[in-house]
């Protein structure tokens, strides 16, 4: 269902939305429609009919009830940093922006929880936690613009998953408005609540297709102490797994990332961050751990020396200050921004950690064989089996032809994903870009159950229609 199916005129639509949220909280100017109608993807051009900015859960409820009555499709909009077109309004939908629902309240020092509006920016929550002497550990490159509601809708992961898990592990409770217009208070912030279905989990990762999250109680934890970073150069990918196993067996890691030499060269070429050491390597591993005592540093050095003796590591560097640690992190964190100028075709895939080496090898072999002129950039959260495959567009190839050829690559890649029982979307969600490939991770029976769940919560299919799954 799209806005074009409503019988309302554009003027009637605007007037009724203004009656709910106020004159100044509805926008239809070209710049706003362009800005709020899209996310970071560039495949689908934005085409919303209006942008509405509610300030309360009750206003969201009124918008949803109005949408049901007049057959108006709604698309949620947070920080618009998504990479799967889950927040793109391409078919005349009304965009519901949560920018004004950005209050932090209800901090509970005993429970280590805080209440956040859906529009609270991730970094805003991180800074608030720090002010309380605590830590919100879900972290990623878009923390400065992504919003908590969007993080919940996509179950965002990031760079600390190996230690702290995904967004869902930090959601104590939710307030949601369902597609029927009901307000539900889910889980009531309880740690233990064994009273049937945990509907909170349906909305986490649901991409706004069942209803909209308006508030969330988020758990906080103690801050890590003296975080120390190691960057190691390794001769082959299998060696990364040996390094991971060696360190993870002996040290509680807060992060374990990897990136290819090709990826690092792109970052270093910008001139902002130096190479970590002179020795060249095919791949690099970045480890982070808490060094609370000199003993922890000594233990890490012993493990590093063992890896050198085994031939798994060619060279390495350990941060000696917070500034150096930040610069070492930039070798990994700056990759996405750096390669953007090559119009990368991105795949965000995962398998269980033990299957990563043959999985990566098969994918690289088929892409290199079929498209020898395409440059492949690998990086990812190797500690949790999440790989980011980036194929860079050759300068002399038109974007349309490049994406057409990469669509064939995706089919081959996802066939390998299916073979290894992995996921076609490890952390970016499904949206529209991965919807056609959902069958490689979910069975037909599962997808039918997903449709049935959506039909219960959103019988008129007004909540982010066309994303995640298509209704029959």
From TrEMBL:
It catalyses: (R)-2-hydroxyglutarate + A = 2-oxoglutarate + AH2. The keyword Repeat does not apply. It is an enzyme of class 1 (oxidoreductase). Keywords: FAD, Flavoprotein, Metal-binding, Oxidoreductase, Zinc. GO terms for molecular function: (R)-2-hydroxyglutarate dehydrogenase activity; FAD binding; metal ion binding. One of its GO terms (biological process) is respiratory electron transport chain. Its cofactor is FAD. Residues 44-223 form the FAD-binding PCMH-type domain. InterPro entries: FAD-bd_oxidored_4_C, FAD-bd_PCMH, FAD-bd_PCMH-like_sf, FAD-bd_PCMH_sub1, FAD-bd_PCMH_sub2, FAD-linked_Oxase-like_C, FAD-oxidored/transferase_4, Oxid_FAD_bind_N. Its EC number is 1.1.99.39. SUPFAM superfamilies: FAD-binding/transporter-associated domain-like (SSF56176), FAD-linked oxidases, C-terminal domain (SSF55103). Homodimer. Belongs to the FAD-binding oxidoreductase/transferase type 4 family. This is D-2-hydroxyglutarate dehydrogenase. It comes from Oleispira antarctica RB-8. The lineage of its organism: Bacteria, Pseudomonadati, Pseudomonadota, Gammaproteobacteria, Oceanospirillales.
């Amino acid at each position: 269902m799209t806005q074009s199916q409503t019988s309302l005129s554009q003027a009637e639509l605007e007037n009724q939305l203004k009656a709910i949220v106020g004159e100044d909280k509805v926008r239809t100017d070209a710049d706003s429609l362009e800005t709020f109608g899209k996310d970071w993807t560039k495949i689908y051009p934005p085409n919303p009919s209006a942008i509405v900015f509610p300030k309360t859960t009750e206003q969201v409820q009124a918008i949803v009830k109005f949408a049901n009555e007049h057959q108006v499709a709604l698309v949620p909009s947070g920080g618009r940093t998504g990479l799967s077109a889950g927040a793109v309004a391409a078919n005349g939908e009304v965009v519901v922006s949560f920018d004004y629902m950005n209050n932090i309240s209800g901090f509970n020092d005993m429970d280590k929880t805080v209440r956040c509006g859906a529009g609270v920016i991730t970094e805003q929550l991180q800074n608030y936690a720090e002010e309380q002497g605590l830590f919100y550990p879900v972290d990623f490159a878009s923390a400065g613009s992504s919003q908590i509601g969007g993080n919940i809708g996509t179950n965002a992961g990031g760079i600390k998953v190996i230690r702290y898990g995904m967004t869902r592990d930090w959601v104590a409770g939710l307030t949601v408005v369902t597609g029927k217009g009901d307000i539900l208070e889910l889980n009531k912030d309880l740690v233990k609540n064994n009273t049937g279905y945990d509907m909170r989990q349906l909305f986490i990762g649901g991409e706004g297709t069942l209803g909209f999250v308006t508030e969330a109680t988020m758990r906080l934890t103690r801050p890590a102490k003296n975080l120390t970073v190691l960057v190691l150069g390794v001769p082959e990918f299998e060696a990364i797994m040996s390094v991971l196993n060696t360190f993870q067996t002996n040290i509680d890691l807060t992060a374990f990332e990897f990136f290819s030499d090709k990826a690092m060269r792109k970052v270093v070429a910008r001139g902002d961050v130096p190479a970590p050491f002179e020795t060249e390597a095919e791949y690099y591993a970045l480890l982070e751990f808490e060094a609370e005592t000199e003993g922890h540093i000594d233990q890490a050095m012993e493990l590093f020396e063992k890896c050198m003796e085994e031939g798994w590591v060619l060279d390495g560097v350990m941060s000696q200050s917070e500034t150096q640690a930040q610069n070492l992190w930039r070798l990994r964190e700056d990759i996405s921004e750096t390669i953007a100028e090559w119009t990368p075709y991105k795949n965000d895939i995962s398998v269980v950690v033990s299957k990563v080496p043959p999985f990566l090898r098969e994918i690289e072999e088929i892409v290199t064989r079929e498209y020898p002129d395409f440059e492949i950039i690998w990086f990812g959260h190797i500690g949790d089996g999440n790989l980011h495959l980036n194929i860079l567009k050759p300068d002399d190839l038109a974007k349309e032809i490049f994406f057409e050829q990469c669509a064939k690559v995706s089919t081959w890649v996802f066939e390998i994903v299916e073979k290894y029982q992995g996921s076609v979307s490890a952390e970016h969600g499904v949206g529209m870009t991965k919807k056609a490939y959902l069958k490689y991770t979910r069975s037909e029976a599962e997808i039918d159950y997903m449709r049935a769940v959506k039909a219960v919560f959103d019988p008129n299919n007004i909540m982010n229609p066309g994303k995640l799954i298509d209704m029959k």
